[in-house]
Amino acid sequence: MNNGPELVERMQKVLDTLRPLIQADGGDMTVVNVENNVVYVKLHGACVGCPMSTYTLKLGVEEALREHFPFIQEVVALEGD
């Protein structure tokens, strides 16, 4: 399996489908890296420090990514703009 930039780019495209909902609340996120079946995303804007970002991450982003990439075990947020 290729964990390089191509995989990150493909995951970013899946995240792009959720982006309007995330941005509607003043936030955003970017796929940073994939390592050992864990996807690392960076939170931006209102997502940083938001208590609801955990729910968005687990129930929205993680599920959407798993639909396209079943090997994903977890999505982890790296906070900070």
From TrEMBL:
InterPro entries: FSCA_dom_sf, NIF_FeS_clus_asmbl_NifU_C
Pfam families hit by this protein: NifU
Domain NIF system FeS cluster assembly NifU C-terminal: 12-76
GO molecular function: iron ion binding; iron-sulfur cluster binding
A biological process term (GO) from this entry: iron-sulfur cluster assembly
Family per similarity comment: Belongs to the NifU family.
Official protein name in the record: NIF system FeS cluster assembly NifU C-terminal domain-containing protein
Native source organism of the sequence: candidate division TM6 bacterium JCVI TM6SC1
